[in-house]
Amino acid sequence: MKELISSGIELMIAGMGIVYAFLLMLVFTINVMSAFLQRYFPDKTVSSGKAYAGLDKSTVAAITAAVHQYRKQHR
Q1: 18, 26 Cβ separation under 8 angstroms
Q2: What is the model's pTM?
């Protein structure tokens, strides 16, 4: 009976080690891909001033108030 339990524990440790190794490889691969994509395809910065270029101040104020009220009600 002890041999069966020790065999089960060995199998459990081996399985957990394989899963842990796979997760480490997955995290490493994702980080490398992220660095590669950021290097060759950097994020484009958007200036916030151009978003309201065609709107007057009262419209922007109304939109801002509506968004604020929506966020306040849906917390």
Answers
A1: no
A2: 0.52
